[in-house]
Design goal:
The chain is α/β, with parallel strands linked by helices. It has helices at residues 2-11, 33-42, 56-66, 81-90, 106-109, 136-149, 165-174, 183-186, 191-199, and strands at 16-21, 47-52, 70-74, 94-99, 117-121, 156-160, 178-180. α1 packs across α9 and α2 (33-42) packs parallel to α3 (56-66). The chain binds zinc ion. Zinc ion is lined by residues 17, 19, 50, 160, 180.
Length: 202
């Protein structure tokens, strides 16, 4: 993992996105805060921690202590979402709200005063390597429009899932400004070139 992170740094990525799955909110299980702590020890890049868990209200504190900079919680998690976003802010971290493909983006609007970023999932959370769901671009567009019209011009909109050079460009056109790429980067022959293409600096 350290080697891959070094590769990302050399390729010029801005953040490291860390997918946490608890085996409940999604069936899969990944890693927890001990691993994040190790990652914190080997990179100065901002760590963007995507919590796909049932109880982000209880988990956020552990990931904040382990070195997260941004903490993304799911609007579908069965807990008090507003209170959880406030709690993340109180911990001195940047709160973000994630939305699964089947959840209407309008559900997120009420939380914009409490978060710095909305993460629009462009695949079902769980597995890497899935195809980008093109209909999600509509959600991005709607969200960017709403944010601009309602006093949130600096809202970050992140897309996560199936991002490659083509879908990344489409997402940016729709209003996204943060792209998460997994397979698209790690399986590329030239990670640096793909990263530059995603950023539009190639
Ligand atoms: Zn993610």
């Amino acid at each position: 993992m350290a080697e891959e992170i070094r590769r990302c740094e050399d390729a010029g990525v801005d953040w490291i996105h860390f997918d946490v799955m608890d085996g409940h909110f999604v069936e899969q299980l990944t890693y927890g805060e001990p691993v994040l702590k190790r990652v914190r020890g080997i990179t100065d890049k901002p760590l963007d921690v995507h919590l796909m868990v049932d109880n982000p209200d209880r988990q956020a504190r552990f990931f904040a202590e382990a070195g997260a900079d941004i903490i993304d919680i799911h609007i579908e998690s069965p807990c008090d979402i507003g209170a959880c976003l406030k709690h993340i802010r109180e911990l001195g971290k940047s709160p973000a709200l994630a939305v699964k493909p089947n959840t209407p983006i309008e559900d997120a609007f009420a939380y914009l005063p409490l978060c710095d970023m909305v993460l629009v999932m462009t695949v079902e959370p769980g597995y890497g390597g899935q195809g980008f769901i093109a209909e999600m671009l509509e959600k991005v567009k709607k969200l960017r429009g709403y944010a601009d019209e309602n006093g949130f011009p600096s809202l970050d909109i992140q897309v996560d899932g199936g991002v490659n050079e083509k879908t990344g460009a489409d997402a940016k056109k729709a209003g996204a400004n943060v792209l998460v790429a997994g397979t698209g980067l790690f399986k590329a022959d030239d990670m640096k070139a793909v990263n530059a293409a995603l950023k539009g600096t190639l």
